[in-house]
Please model this.
Amino acid sequence: MRGMFFSQAVDDALAQAMANDPRIIIFGEDTLLLRRNLLVRFGPTRVRGTPISESAFLGAGVSAAMAGLRPVVEIYMVDFLGVCMDALINHAAKVETFSGGKWSAPVVVRAPCGGGYGDGGQHEQSLWGWLAHIPGLTVLVPSTPADAGGLMMAALQQDNPVIFLEHKLLSETNLEFLGSGARKTVHYDIPAEGAKGMVPQKWEPIPIGKAVLRRKGMDVTIVSVGVGVHRALEAAKTLDTEGISAGVLDLRTISPLDKTAVCEEVAQTGRLLVVDEDYEGFGLSGELSAVVLEAGISFKYARVCTQTTIPYARNLEDRVLPNTQRICASVRQLLK
Amino acid sequence: MPPNLWSLYALMLRSRLFEEAIAQIWHDGLISGEMHLGTGEEAIIAGIVSQLCEGDAMALDHRGTAALLMRGIDPVLILRELLGQADGLCGGMGGHMHLFSKEHLVASSGIVGAAGPSALGFALSAQYLRPGTIAVSFFGDAAMNQGMLMESMNLASVWKLPVLFVCKDDGWGITTQSKGVTGGDLDERVRGLGIPAIEVDGCDVSEVWQASKLAIERARSGNGPTFLHARCVHLEGHFLGYQLIRLVRDPLRELPKIAGPLTKSFFRPGGAAFVDRLAGLKIVLAAVISTLRDPRQDLVNDPIRQTHLILQSNPERLQELDDQVEQEVTNVLASIFEEVSS
Model:
């Protein structure tokens, strides 16, 4: 085992995979600088910078995958997928069905996501619900360095398109690049366990679609992803001092959803709280309630999500994004 | 008719001092996230915005503070917005990349290239509702490779829309050098869409003013869009804390952070042949070296110093103006920070 930062772990896993599989290439905006360590090891044929032409290079990633490569396409932020969604929803996601199952597009799209550092509502969205809505897209949202590397390994072995989201509060490089600019005068509420952690000496793929129970609880099951997992764990500690036993389930994969794990936990506690940094309406939180209802489980339900466009003002932003106070209040309400 | 260099200088200087104050506020940690300054492109903004009239619209990129200021929007409101205050220009909800003023018809976006379609729609409503008014689209050279901007130019051309497309070309897209990711010649590209392209020195405010005067007249009189291609240098790079500039300004602190992992990765077994690794290393070094030959140091690339030199012919008036503008900016800061501290 060795300690690593979040994005360092992703890059390390990528490097291991690239050394073993010459089909893997990386391209995207500013990749030459952001992935400079990979560039000097694998050369400019396999690590390429692109112009700010998302429709072109994401679309190219999809068809290059169809024709034998394993491209990792980097989008600056998940928000910018708005410029080029066609390549994902109308092409990458459809190839397998349209070809009668004979052809697929094993492309990995890597994009930073999430807020909490004051970049405003056009640069801090989560959007995983929007992506997971489309059949044919796999959506991964790791919450620790070990999961990030392991899920990247799995993504690279997947025969269908995978969107790999990297929360900026967990990613040391993204946060410095897009937030602090190496200032010591700004402070963000970074979950320490998510930003840095132990990782295996040699990367093994972590199965896609498998949730992990981060904390066992008897009274309520909190289901979350990404930074939300750490907020939920913090809340669970607070609740513990009040005699409330809260479990925390980290989905790790949004789609395909680990319905079995969710249902098993909720069946035991009888209460489900979803903590989702993505938008509340028409998304993951509602989907989870439907999954448990469909399983015929009787349970109480609440959610702590982002309900509006994320404000620029830091104090307002902290209130809009799920935080431990809101999580604790919701759990107390559920137990009433 | 030549431009009034004194008033253009005042516009530019006010913007520069205002943005330098913003930089300080950012360094002090009062602004949390990214901050893209327009220092270095003031001549482009001043030369054009000084000629806008009521009813004219502007579509701005993520670097819009100077344009808003020069359009006459209250600097106190702008600064309050950047500080995320409820009484800021947009209630503290937008921030510096998303500045809006409905009454001035100004919209910003942090999505590269989005100023194309925005200006297009503003121009369409101008053509229909306010004949004689125009829309200006400000964007960087990297936006020229974004499909939506190219599509906007084509549509502006065929609909003969009153748009001034302004490319503020500093040769960089964030940390990527544009020449490495841009095919052909930008002016020729735009001419191919049926739009006249004019190249100007973006550090020479008179030249920008003259060229845009003709383009604006052309748009006002219903003869369609023009592309103004203005070269400039961003004095702070893409944004404050820009990695390549940090490397130049504080190499002892920044270099080891980069060099250590880079060297380790370069020698790691498994991967490309030595020659390919070397090619990769050359790309990284080229980016660093291009920053070391920092055009920011060259006075020629600072539009304000350039204009200052010309106006030296009347030193007393110049001093008076410098003092007056400095006082204005000091007053803006005082009105915000004294209120906070009291």
Observations:
- Chain B has a mean pLDDT of 94.
- Chain B has 13 helices and nine strands.
